[in-house]
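step 3/5: co-fold with adenosine-5'-triphosphate
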Amino acid sequence: MIHFKQVSKHFAGKAVVRDLTLDIAQGEFTVLIGTSGSGKSTTLKMINRLIEHDRGSITFAGEPIEKLRAQELRRRMGYAIQSIGLFPHWTVEENIATVPQLLKWPKNKIRDRVTELLELLHLEPEQFRHRYPHQLSGGQQQRVGVARALAADPDVLLMDEPFGALDPVTRTALQQEIARIHQLLGRTIVLVTHDIDEALSLADRIVLLNEGQIVQQGTPLEMLTKPATPFVRDFFGRSDMGIKLLSLGLVSERVRRGQTAQGEPILASMTLREALSIFVARHTQQLPVIDEQGQALGVLHFADLVAERES
Ligand SMILES: Nc1ncnc2c1ncn2[C@@H]1O[C@H](COP(=O)(O)OP(=O)(O)OP(=O)(O)O)[C@@H](O)[C@H]1O
Ligand SMILES: [Mg+2]
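step 4/5: write tokens
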């Protein structure tokens, strides 16, 4: 869906993205991660031409992006970021309707779309649509930002640290919301973060950048278990704490009840740390779970292991 071929970007003669080749498949959830200044935001902004690349080619749905008009790009790619917030003098409804307004949708269609999106993001429509951004909490504002990005039903959702500066509880709630939207709507999502656990729990594929170059890309499991270089190992090694915490939890707490999966079942009484070892040994994303009586209980998903705990 989005292809980068040997793309470079220079600022003041210095390469901040170098020779980047990247394929983002339709419906895939890609997370760009890396240290500060590694070129994540620049890479994301080159996709919707907020920044123009200066070498190589970027194509979207088969077309070089420089061939697409800005309005076309905006309609087809939603964009949500942490720092540039909502328009302060516009209501929630007006903020969400930014792109539909540009596209001159009829009023009724806009109103219905705003209602639908507020419900999708668990904001009670009648309570929130007429409020101004300063009348919302930070987490509610970020929800509205995500709703705005989704408004014109874009093919692609680009998000730059959309959950930054949130408390862990709200952050987890919003992450779960995005994961649900991804599953529900099957959108292609590219998300930038520097939060390793966020990357591990949300991504189909992680792309690790350093100094403007891709160091390694792969599934969360691959990044953890087959680091290509010591840099990658150290980078993801920082999530050790999360892995250690798994020793404290039980499979029964994370099992998705009622589901079925192939393979040798594991016991619900096992610790999550033990389950992790089995995931790694078997190179699988799902394990069937049984109780002490040998009755099938459900399925443990790898993604649920690394997801933030509720408490
Ligand atoms: N408009 C600009 N002019 C000059 N230099 C820039 C500009 N935008 C970004 N840079 C530089 O490019 C490099 C990459 O920046 P970028 O914003 O892509 O990093 P990042 O990986 O998103 O970092 P962070 O995690 O801190 O957000 C940095 O060294 C930054 O200073
Ligand atoms: Mg950035």
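step 5/5: annotate
The mean pLDDT is 89.
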